[in-house]
User: Which sequence fits this backbone?
């Protein structure tokens, strides 16, 4: 099947970004912690939207979380017509990526799935992408050259590894892509680590850091603190204290995010019913 190469489509890339300090603070949390905050403020269905629905592997878990704005591309490594019909597609895509605000995460949809004929992200492309502001990639397909990517400071989450590159050529870019069962828009804020990824809707960005920090502190101040202090106590007393801590946790979350539920229908997390 031949798929015509298309230029970038209009996207949300020009909308206001979070400042670098906010992004760095969000990168200090793991992706589940960011999810815990996000589900409290979003009007979306947090059980279905934003998160990967299919398994993926973080091949550099030691590098920790990454956060950035999606620069999307579609590939079809099994099809030799793409490089023949548009031999300069990679440099054009690199230029497109270089023009987008950063930090950026390369998000790749592979039309060959569930097969993987080759990897478009390896040492060369990772090094190039790092030079133009990308901190990592989410590839619904294959990657290669893991050690070399680590040396370049480029994190890769993908479905599998591959030896070859086949015809890993851009088919289209700057368009919505579907990866691991989830659609990601170009310019969408993405947080990812060894657990998976979370794509944040634009309307939820401004309150994301505060919500994440609150929910993380709420856990530490109630359930986690109570459980850590349980050593030596009789089990009935432990259960009583944990029950009280759970109540305190839920009440704090419900009170903190009452406005989100009232104004936008947000706060659809596990504590929203309180």
Assistant:
């Amino acid at each position: 099947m031949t798929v015509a190469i298309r230029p970038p489509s209009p996207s949300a890339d020009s909308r206001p970004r979070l400042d670098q300090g906010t992004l760095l603070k969000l990168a200090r949390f793991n992706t589940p912690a960011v999810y815990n905050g996000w589900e409290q403020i979003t009007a979306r269905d947090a059980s279905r939207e934003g998160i990967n629905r299919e398994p993926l592997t973080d091949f550099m878990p030691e590098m920790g979380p990454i956060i950035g704005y999606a620069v999307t591309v579609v590939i079809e490594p099994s099809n030799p017509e793409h490089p023949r019909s548009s031999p300069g597609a990679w440099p054009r895509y690199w230029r497109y990526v270089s023009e987008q605000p950063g930090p950026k995460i390369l998000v790749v949809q592979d039309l060959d799935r569930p097969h993987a004929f080759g990897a478009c992200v390896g040492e060369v492309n990772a090094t190039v992408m790092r030079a133009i502001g990308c901190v990592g990639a989410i590839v619904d397909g294959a990657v290669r050259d893991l050690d070399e990517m680590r040396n370049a400071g480029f994190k890769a989450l993908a479905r599998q590894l591959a030896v070859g590159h086949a015809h890993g050529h851009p088919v289209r870019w700057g368009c919505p892509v579907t990866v691991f069962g989830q659609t990601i828009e170009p310019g969408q804020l993405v947080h990812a680590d060894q657990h998976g990824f979370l794509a944040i809707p634009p309307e939820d960005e401004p309150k994301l850091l505060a919500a994440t920090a609150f929910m993380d502190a709420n856990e530490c101040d109630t359930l986690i603190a109570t459980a850590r202090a349980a050593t030596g106590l009789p089990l009935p007393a432990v259960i009583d204290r944990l029950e009280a801590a759970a109540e305190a946790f839920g009440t704090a979350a419900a009170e903190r995010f009452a406005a989100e539920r009232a104004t936008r229908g947000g706060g659809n997390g596990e504590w929203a019913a309180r």
Notes: The radius of gyration is 21 Å. Residues 205-228 form the longest helix (24 residues). Residues 189 and 200 are 5 Å apart (CA to CA). The domain at 20-201 is CATH 3.50.30.40 (Glucose Oxidase; domain 1).
